[in-house]
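User: Here's a chain of 243 residues. Predict its fold as tokens.
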Amino acid sequence: MAGAAALPWLLLPGLDGGGTLFDNLVAARDGAATTIVRYPDHPDADLDACVAEVERQRPHGGAFVAVAESFSGPVALRWARTAPDGLAALVFVASFHASPHPLLPLACALTGIAASPRMRTLATHDAVLRALCLGSGATPAHLAALRAAILAMPTAVLRSRLRLLRDLDERADGLPSDLPILCLRATHDRLVRRHHMDGALGGARHDMREVEGPHFLLQARARACLDAIGTWLARCPTTTKLF
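Assistant: Prediction complete.
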């Protein structure tokens, strides 16, 4: 991996907040420096608490690229307004700025029921995970990793994060005008409504790319995402001037 694609990456995780689902992506980066943010695992951690963790855990002393997956999109929007030193580019993957799905209020109401062992077993069945998250081509390893991440979330934390998303409306006002932004959109995303990041970015300079795959793009289509991001970085004046 050479040039802009070899810049260190800061990975911001999805709803689970633990970053355990990035293993295949990190391996595919062929040893390039990668930092995975982990969010506080308690129900009082709001958006500002997640932003504080990103700032605390981010690389220091050089340029890097931040890649925000799904839930981390609004976290990254708020954090990037502070113009962190070294942030060379920002990538959103299957993300959003406001409540991503009309059924979120129902999901919030049902989290208590979903905590029962029977419901958790049903919710993490292979067929459900394939249909909603990973696509029909999901490997047993991908399914097992996602199932483990879901089951590891305390019910109170899950409820808190779903409520945060239900009430969300985070805008891109105040982003640094020279910050390059890329949005990767999944073609078969069943969890986030189409074009749901566009409204937040408004006049901010950004590029949009579609990647064939389900909502969990970085897991199901790691290589395709790496290629799309690498190609974009190689053509981005802000990152290419670093080499």
